[in-house]
Amino acid sequence: MSTAASTVERPSRARIIADLQALLGDAGLLHLPEDLHPYECDGLSAYRQLPLAVALPETVEQVRAVLGYASRHAIPVVARGAGTGLSGGALPHTEGILLSLAKFNRILDIDPRNRTARVQPGVRNLAISEAAKPYGLYYAPDPSSQIACSIGGNVAENSGGVHCLKYGLTVHNLVELEILTIDGERLRIGNAAPDAPGYDLLALMTGSEGMLGVITEVTVKLLPIPERAQVILAAFDDVARAGHAVGAIIAAGIIPAGLEMMDRLAIRAAEDFVHAGYPEVEAILLCELDGTNEEVSEHISQVRRLLQTHGAVEVRTATDEAERARFWQGRKAAFPAVGRISPDYYCMDGTIPRSRLAEVLTRIGELSREYDLAVANVFHAGDGNLHPLILYDANNPGELERTEEFGGRILELCVEVGGTITGEHGVGMEKIDQMCVQFRPLELAQFHAIKAAFDPAGLLNPGKAVPTLHRCAEFGAMHVHQGQLPHPELERF
Ligand SMILES: Cc1cc2nc3c(=O)[nH]c(=O)nc-3n(C[C@H](O)[C@H](O)[C@H](O)COP(=O)(O)OP(=O)(O)OC[C@H]3O[C@@H](n4cnc5c(N)ncnc54)[C@H](O)[C@@H]3O)c2cc1C
């Protein structure tokens, strides 16, 4: 994206800090290096840089004032929720303001009749379900980071989670958003009525990674807490067989509330960490069924049969809530568990057609040997959303670069088999080059046009999510014939 308009004279750093202090008060601005360090990265800690300052507004008027100031002086702004993002989306801009929405943490309204919750963007994902519980309701999308991540970040990343196979991603569970554009214009998009008129701006904004506007309020759908939920753990001595079992369950017309898979390395790490009682096998599937009592009983026996006919060496059904929680505990703690067995790991995220699961896992295994880097696979199998965790040691010279290249090859493999480079983690900085593989120049040009319609000077989260055509050419993912980039008529950003 183009960066700040060059004609605007930029105030000095000291001036910017003094001006922002005047807008936000001393408590609303951090600018000393020691205060800035906690914000130097998101969950993708391989990339770090300090922002010019961190703004901590408390009111929408303050957000508007910060955006207006940034817009007048051509200063980049990066919005930040809880900073749990895994693609470097909230990585600060060294010359820019990091706009934290952490103080927007109030649940504004729970409406049990309409089954909605209106919340501020800094509210934690899990806090919504906790607040809705007394009404017998919950918010379905459940990223594994749900105890920490914010709903604003979930909207910006179109986050998923275990429940999303059955209940949809964040985008399917939203009713309305309030956003501020970089010029401080306040927009309400979406509608309480089932079919909002006009273009679907709600969908456009969901997954827009802080590039189009700052989300200041979110109204989400709530669902009734199911009468019963029960989980089955199936063990396999072959990863491919587990992959085929996933396809068989869905093909049988059963949509589980969650269908997750872990491979040997992930199982061992999780078991050593939380002692979930996992067997020592090549792969396990966790399949949760929810609904009415009758429905769950019927689905449990159907799924057990399917798993057995597809080669499961052991099938266990959790018999009570404690056992169900224990089965899930290992899966939910898998990322930190892998963090205990390797100095560093790099979490990839791509989606593939479920039918290619077994083949892709086999090819990831081959790449693992080629790059001499171990991989632990733990993922949303039902969605075809892979999370290969590449284990590496950043202290070994060149190992991070090898890991990044390996990660890039996995994403390209996802595209090759008809999938996508993002499952649920967004593009951010991490996957920006693979956007050149996923999209053609004209498609990227359309993305730039949409960005320009909301943010003509390219001040919101510059350098993220949508690559310039030059970047694609440099990455080698665009054919440059005799030194001529394709589509010379298009503006080069
Ligand atoms: C252990 C672990 C497990 C995870 N599991 C999952 C998972 O199962 N599913 C999943 O989808 N993700 C998962 N994630 C990734 C991450 O939690 C999600 O992407 C989450 O939505 C990020 O929310 P956040 O509040 O931390 O956003 P941040 O990291 O702060 O920001 C993410 C992006 O959103 C933008 N943004 C944040 N707030 C706003 C706002 N108010 N307005 C405009 N833009 C904004 C930022 O600019 C940035 O581009 C996991 C992360 C970790 C660390």
From TrEMBL:
Pfam families named in the record: FAD-oxidase_C, FAD_binding_4
Keywords (A to Z) from UniProt: FAD, Flavoprotein, Oxidoreductase
InterPro entries: FAD-bd_oxidored_4_C, FAD-bd_PCMH, FAD-bd_PCMH-like_sf, FAD-bd_PCMH_sub2, FAD-linked_Oxase-like_C, FAD-linked_OxidoTrans_Type4, Oxid_FAD_bind_N, Vanillyl_alc_oxidase_C-sub2
Domain FAD-binding PCMH-type, first and last residues per copy: 47-225
Cofactor requirements of the protein: FAD
Record-level Gene Ontology MF annotations: FAD binding; oxidoreductase activity
Homology family: Belongs to the FAD-binding oxidoreductase/transferase type 4 family.
Name the UniProt record assigns to this protein: Glycolate oxidase subunit GlcD
Source organism per UniProt: Thiohalobacter thiocyanaticus
